[in-house]
Request: fold
Amino acid sequence: MPLPYCLNKSFRNIRQSQRESGFTLIELAISMFIITLIATALLGPITAQVTQAKISQAKADLDQINESLIGYALAQAKPRLP
Reply:
């Protein structure tokens, strides 16, 4: 038994809206690619800053060690390094 025209039309609209809702796999892949590009662009400078901070800290540590060794050598009766 065929459905009346008004019910048939509403079921057709429901099926079309269900088919058209959501994202396709291609749309999801493209959006993930764009997010990856943005994340990579942001992580580059942050990594460089962290590396530069580590280098600066290492130089400061070496300067402090140098000053400590010179102080130790001058404090000894015979200037020598440990």
Residues 64 and 72 are 12 Å apart (CA to CA). Residues 25-75 form the longest helix (51 residues).
